[in-house]
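To fix ideas, we reproduce below a protein record of this kind.
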Amino acid sequence: GPLPSGEAKRYGDKNFKAMMYAKVLCVLYPLMLGYDVLFQDVDIVWIKDPMEYFHDDSSNLSQFDVIFQHDGSKSVRYAPYSANSGFYYVRANKRSQYLFTSLLYHSDLIITWDSHQQVLIQLLAEHSSLFGLGVKVLGLGTEMFPGAYML
């Protein structure tokens, strides 16, 4: 259906769930066209260009298919990764395309759980184990991404 024209009134309402679904599509489509994707929520501000960080071939990050900022939550709900679904980088390849296609196919769980974050984290665990998806979650206090730092 169409995207909502107004904001969500509360976490998990109909408009919120529709936007969670849209977040999946806006990552999946460029991946399927062969483009890497840097996804971020609108409340992120860059001090310097983050792409150098993700494209640095001398860094060990070049071996990962998906790189997430830590969510800051230690809740069991987001175990084992605590990956922040509001800031991540995805390299376009067959493994990441399959991950996000699977996320799209799990839209019933997005509706049930009111968000795509928990579904995405469970799929990260499954795809890293079964299909060799390289997953990296940046630790708290990462200097390049200070929003992940918690006092």
User: Anything to note?
Assistant: The chain has five helices and four strands. The mean pLDDT is 82. Residues 29 and 35 are 9 Å apart (CA to CA). The longest helix spans residues 14-32.
